[in-house]
Amino acid sequence: MAAIGIDKATKIFGRTAALKGVSLDIRDGEFMVLLGPSGCGKTTLLRCVAGLEQVDAGRVRIGDRDVTDLAPRDRNIAMVFQSYAVFPHMTVAGNIGFGLRMRRVPRPDIQQRVRQGAELLGLVSFLDRYPAQLSGGQRQRVAVARALVMDAPVLLMDEPLSNLDALLRLQARADLKRLHKEVKRTTIYVTHDQVEAMSMGDRIAVMRDGAIEQIGAPMEIYDNPASQFVGGFIGSPPMNFLRGAVRDGGFAGDGFSVPLSRPRGEQGRELLLGVRAEHIVIGGGGIPAKVLVVEPLGSHALVTAVVGKTAVKVQAPVDVAVKPDQAISLRFDESRVRWMDAGSGTALPN
Amino acid sequence: MSPRVLDRALIYGSAILLAVWVLIPFYIIAVSAFTPQARIFDFPKPLLPTAFSTDTMQFFVEARGVVPSVINSLLVALATIAFGLTLGTPAGYALARFHFRGREAFQVIVLATKMFPIAILSIPLAVTFLQLGLYDNLLAVALVHTAMALPFIILVTGGVFVAVSHELEEAAQTLGCTRWGAFLRVALPLALPGLAAAAIFTFVISWNEVFAATILTLRTRTLPALVLAGLGTSPLGFKFAGGLFMAMPAIVFIFLIRRYLMNLWGSR
Ligand SMILES: Nc1ncnc2c1ncn2[C@@H]1O[C@H](COP(=O)(O)OP(=O)(O)OP(=O)(O)O)[C@@H](O)[C@H]1O
Ligand SMILES: [Mg+2]
């Protein structure tokens, strides 16, 4: 039983406010992903939960205890570091069993749990090796095994896959997801890779500049970004945005105009139209555009076209018959279009 | 010649040159120290020892005051290592881990102490030690040697701890260690080769230090102080044997510890 409650956590380093009153509630057994660009405060938030960093204001709760003033060892957490932080002077077995030894678990129990952990992560044949004799992926698994055998109800992971090559990463991603299904620890997982976040998280908290911009299930965030920032950060390619204003019941901008299905404010209000690449079709006499580039990507083609002066990415079938400089028309799936205030970037209700 | 071969040739060439440069004086000293007293003045010196004998060494070791002074030197060096590492390791650790106010200034000041010539300090030091009742006392010499070695120890251990990732200690903390426990179980063992190196160099600094040892002692001489005191009057054989004797521990120590230094944590 370990839900995590972060209440208005604030952390200031010198002149940088790394966390500006972040509140986040994580349910017991949930896999929560912290996602955001570099420097937005993900690691800082995770370290505040771990106790490696003290919050300057706010509270942190784990289970039914307020742990704000407790040392890391008293918080009942286990952590996987971005650099893995496996101990070079201990064998794999020594590393995995380190925490258990510190907790004074009886020796036979340690051996058994180390073995179990090694089996879970496929490390049995490496138990006697030193980290210097392991590959990056193996070291990463040692770090995960070392955290898992602690049986701590909370598992914290800081970009554990960022040092792996693309293929290994795909594999490790699936492994971690399977592992979570098996062990069901409350997990906070930090990443700046939105694909990782989408594929692994029960929920995602998107962070920006020391604050949480949106919390929600992956598809919810993907479909209904709370702001221009979130829409632009999640998805590959990111959401397209067209700037314009309300004109005579429609929405018009540089080189285009579309009807509005429902009123979006008074005449002249500046808005952003947000639409994803896969919700645009080419042809059918919609918005006039000019093709810039066509990128065949195997399963589909990515067409970049210009509307007015804005580049728009369109997902098209591989066999799409358009060429650079060709004039085309684009039609947006109206039910998938999202509206944002042009000034603040925050989404309007659908 | 391909660039690779040229590279290798250059590397080996300079290594050999350096080695020869360092080894020739040692060689001459060593050969002379094992040459019978009567043949020491032979010139030109034979490249290989013509008449091997331990006479000279025996003469040196049996000379009055040599054995006690060797013991004195050892005691002073060991005390210097103990004091120096006890004081210097925490300071080096702090330099490596904490970004405290005045950190840079501290680093500069530590180095600046090396700019004080010991000669200027020696008279006030001697006076102070006289007042403290520590004059002609090995403790006084060890304290001065500690002061001399400290900047070096602090900067070296600082570098050693910088090389030990802080995340390792943090990982240990999340795994149930206190800060202190994490230092003892993770940072310290990983820093050990570096600390051992610092200890050895401290030993060498103290073992070879002659000025402070001469000024601060009268009868309880360390070996260099003893050899220096007799420099004008002692026979040449005594000097060669003394030289070899003083150089020996440093050479042996570093030779022994070399493997340990390089191989401690495998191929890292
Ligand atoms: N120990 C520190 N001292 C000073 N500033 C810090 C410290 N740790 C973090 N910061 C600052 O706090 C902000 C947030 O840092 P944090 O490491 O949490 O970012 P992040 O989201 O994890 O980024 P990344 O994806 O690059 O790891 C940054 O501006 C960073 O420079
Ligand atoms: Mg980070």
Brief overview:
Chain A has 350 residues and is of the alpha+beta class. In chain A, 24% of the residues lie in helices and 35% in strands.
Describe this structure in words.
The complex is a heterodimer of chains A (350) and B (268). Chain A is an alpha+beta fold and 350 residues long. Chain A folds into 2 domains: 4-228, Rossmann fold (3-Layer(aba) Sandwich), CATH 3.40.50.300; 240-341, OB fold (Dihydrolipoamide Acetyltransferase, E2P), CATH 2.40.50.140. Chain A contains 8 helices and 19 strands. Chain A starts with a strand and ends in a 9-residue tail after the last strand. Chain B has 268 residues and is mostly helical. In chain B, helix 3 (66-97) runs antiparallel to helix 8 (179-208). The longest helix of chain B has 32 residues, at 66-97. Chains A and B meet through strand 6 and helix 2 of A and helix 7 and helix 8 of B. The complex binds adenosine-5'-triphosphate and magnesium ion.
Going by CATH, the homologous superfamily of the largest domain in chain B would be: MetI-like
CATH architecture of the largest domain in chain B: Orthogonal Bundle
Succession of helices and strands of chain B: HHHHHHHHHHH
User: DSSP helix count of chain A?
Assistant: 8
Give the class of chain A from helix and strand content and strand pairing: alpha+beta
- The percent of residues in helical segments of chain B reads over 70%
> Which structural class do the helices and strands of chain B define?
mainly alpha
Rounded to the nearest angstrom, the distance between the terminal CA atoms of chain B is 32 Å
DSSP helix fraction of chain A: 10-25%
Beta-strand percentage range of chain A: 35-45%
Strand runs of chain B, count: 0
Q: Order of strands across the widest beta sheet of chain A? A: 6-7-8-3-9-10
Basic shape of chain B: globular
- Sheet having the most strands of chain A: 6 strands, mixed
Keywords:
heterodimer; A: 350 residues; alpha+beta; Rossmann fold; OB fold (Dihydrolipoamide Acetyltransferase, E2P); 2 domains; 6-stranded mixed beta sheet; 5-stranded antiparallel beta sheet; 24% helix; elongated; B: 268 residues; mainly alpha; MetI-like fold; 11 helices; 0% strand; globular; disordered C terminus; binds adenosine-5'-triphosphate; binds magnesium ion
